[in-house]
Amino acid sequence: MRFGYFGSMKAEPGHRDEVVRILLAAAAGVRDAGCHLYVVGVADDDDQTIWVTEVWDSKEHHDASLRLPETRAAIGRAMPLLTGEFTSREFTVLGGLGLPSGPG
Amino acid sequence: MRFGYFGSMKAEPGHRDEVVRILLAAAAGVRDAGCHLYVVGVADDDDQTIWVTEVWDSKEHHDASLRLPETRAAIGRAMPLLTGEFTSREFTVLGGLGLPSGPG
């Protein structure tokens, strides 16, 4: 079954857009690692928080991606810009609209 | 800018899978209403909650979809099966991987 993740991270004041750029650049590189979806969002009423929604072939694909050199480099660039406040929810993707067809 | 939504709903005990079927059927019909993504998920550690992630052309498209007869019918079928506990987070989609290209 495909693995879904929805989470948020909070940037230090003034650094949200820089973190967004890091995430969008990283998103472009994870398709080959089994990532189907990596959506980055922000809200008008919160100038520090960034929301990310991800769909992967499996949790194992997601976890393995965190060990890729390019992912580790992106995390290394973003972490100093973050407050350390995160939320996350993992789920099993059952289907819906807009995902490529495939196993799970 | 495209509109994103991540929310959860809680089904009465034993009714989660029925609600999932209602949502998946409804998801198939909203593409023409400006919906790019409608992902339905559940988790092994919670047999009542359903998570939904959506991306729309705009918040106006999303709001208008709630007034469609087929959406209202789906809501009417699902509501009696739900506890009334919801969470939601709206956000502006800045980009990422896996979304069709387009405005916003």
UniProtKB/TrEMBL annotation, chains A, B:
Gene3D superfamilies according to UniProt: 3.30.70.100
Superkingdom, natural source: Bacteria
GO MF, one annotated term: monooxygenase activity
Protein name, UniProt field: Antibiotic biosynthesis monooxygenase
Magnesium as UniProt keyword: no
Cross-referenced InterPro entries: ABM_dom, Dimeric_a/b-barrel
UniProt source species: Actinoplanes utahensis
SUPFAM superfamilies the UniProt entry points to: Dimeric alpha+beta barrel
Keywords: Monooxygenase, Oxidoreductase
Domain ABM: 3-91
